[in-house]
Design brief:
It is built from five helices and eight strands, in the order αββαββαβααβββ. The protein is an alpha/beta fold and 164 residues long. A hairpin with a 2-residue loop joins strand 6 (136-145) and strand 7.
């Protein structure tokens, strides 16, 4: 829910004002604004239907910020206990998060095989994000302490290296 709040804030929606994102009770969320297809990055937009929304330059900047929030890679979680036998737990949690996030419509989640190439990589999360063409990175560490498991996670917007 905090991600939707972040998106609403980036789009400039006020409290109780559903201009771009509508809450659908017991279902989730729906994007309301009309979308126009562009031919290319620098091309002019195609003619929009008469019912489309005019996007001001300020709203366009907010839309660009939103664009970076629709693609995500879940990096392989680190095994913080250094116990090779617990490696399956780190991999399993990573796979589970990827599978669950992949169920969200409108969110592009990088496949397991693509992110697991970076399991022992020394690249920074921002470099990995550029390689995978994503705007968000989820990373984490798993510590197994006796019969307790501690999972620490982080969601980072790589465009500004800010934790969300």
């Amino acid at each position: 829910m905090s991600n939707v709040a972040t998106l609403r804030k980036a789009l400039g929606e006020g409290t109780g004002e559903a201009q771009y994102i509508e809450t659908v009770p017991k279902r989730g969320y729906r994007f309301l604004a009309k979308v126009r297809k562009r031919k290319g990055e620098n091309d002019r937009p195609e003619a929009a239907p008469s019912s489309s929304v005019h996007i001001s330059p300020a709203t366009n900047r907010k839309a660009q910020a939103l664009k970076s929030l629709n693609s995500l890679a879940v990096l392989p979680f680190q095994n913080g206990s250094n116990d090779p036998a617990a490696e399956y737990l780190s991999d399993g949690v990573t796979e589970s998060i990827i599978n669950n996030l992949s169920q969200l419509s409108g969110l592009r989640v990088v496949a397991r095989n693509s992110v697991f190439r970076y399991k022992q990589s020394k690249l920074t999360p921002a470099s990995i994000a550029r390689h995978l063409d994503v705007g968000l990175i989820v990373s984490g560490r798993i510590l197994q302490l006796g019969d307790r498991v501690v999972i620490r996670t982080e969601l980072v917007d790589v465009s500004n290296e800010r934790q969300l």
